[in-house]
Amino acid sequence: MTRAPEFVSPVSRQLAVADVGRSAAFYRDVLGFEVGGEGDLASGPARIQLQAGAGAPDSTGQLRPAGAAILFFEVADVAAAREAVLARGGRPSDLEKANWIKMRVFQLRDPDGHTLWFAQSYQQPDAPREPASQLERALPYLPLGDVAAGVAHYRDVLGFRINYQQADLGVMDRDDITLLLVPRRGPDAGRCGFYVRDADALHAELTARGAHVQGQPVSWPWGLRSFAVLDLEGNELTFSQPFE
Asked: How far is CA 198 from each of CA 74, 120, 181, 204, rounded to the nearest angstrom?
């Protein structure tokens, strides 16, 4: 059979399905997932758990009905992935350029109507990540007295694009750089963020080492699963795993 798509970024989701066996067969035969017990599916860094019923909790804990989920997979070669899905009996959409995320993409629906997106950056080639790697790149936090004014300044004066905004947060992008604009908490507390390969695995490691971990990892609506650690001086280090 044609080689399955090669996923290069971590994905971890629960999906509500009408028939676990039918859905498991689709993910195995069309997308090349390995099927474990109790509806567990795995392919490289991608993990899916199938749950029979009318709904299943998503990564934020909210109940999502069958067919309502959207999964985003980054692949090593999106054109080859589409050909593989087609050869394996899937019905993918045409390959398109999504300029707002700088990726070539196509989509597919599973038997329950969940939407599956497959993408590859067209700015630089993607490659499978080293399994041993953990920290990947830094995510600067910049404290401001007025976050909304800071968002406008970074957009209008410094040429950044707004990736996500709410009252106490601005996620700003320019070229390959992302930074966070956050409320100022005081003159002494420092903050720094890091992108990581697996937030839950790192959380377990740092907890076992006796780090001052600030709660469990949380999946946020802007696409990061994060947890924080305080160092011996009270500086806050946030470790974030991108998802979807």
From this structure: 15, 20, 24, 10
Parallel, antiparallel or unpaired: strands 224-230 and 212-213: antiparallel
Q: Is residue 231 included in any domain, yes or no? A: yes
**CATH number of the domain residue 193 falls in:** 3.10.180.10
Confidence of residue 181 (pLDDT cuts 50, 70, 90): confident
Tokens describing residue 193: 């963020």
Q: Cα angle at 40 between 39 and 41, to 5 degrees?
A: 115
- Each residue's pLDDT tens digit, 42-94: 999 899 999 887 554 544 455 455 566 888 999 989 999 999 999 999 999 99
pTM exceeding 0.70: no
3 state SS for 14-58: EEEECCHHHHHHHHHHCCCCEECHHHEEEECCEEEEEEECCEEEC
CB proximity list for 62: less than 8 A, separation 6 or greater: none
Alpha-carbon dihedral of residues 134, 137, 9, 100, nearest 10 degrees? Answer: 170
Considering the domain boundaries, does residue 130 fall inside one? Answer: no
Q: Which residues contact 186 (CB under 8 A, 6 or more apart)?
A: none
How many domains in the chain?
Answer: 2
**Mean pLDDT of the residues in the chain:** 82
Angle at 130 between CA 124 and CA 132, to 5 degrees: 150
**Which amino acid does the sequence have at 27?**
Y
